[in-house]
Amino acid sequence: MKSDNDIASLKVTENAAGVIFAIHVQPRASRTELCGVQGDELRLRLTSPPVDDAANRLCQEFLAKLLGVAKSRVTIVAGAKSRHKTVQVAGIGRDAVLAILN
Asked: Which residues constitute the domain of residue 96?
């Protein structure tokens, strides 16, 4: 599914608050799962439809569970109405994110 080279190509920027990275979301999938990396974006499949912010909420919940942080620490900073989103996760470092995704 995902190799070290794929994860290494993910652009994770660290700042004072935590980390920022790009994701590509596929709503209305058969199951919620991590699909690896495409280009410099983390690919996610979500079961929720892109209606009434349901897919964004599920995206935040899934990433929080995956990274082991509270849901309130995961914020969509750009692309709330798009499949291409930029996410900020507070309270975690770049190395920790890459280690978890590997």
From this structure: 4-101
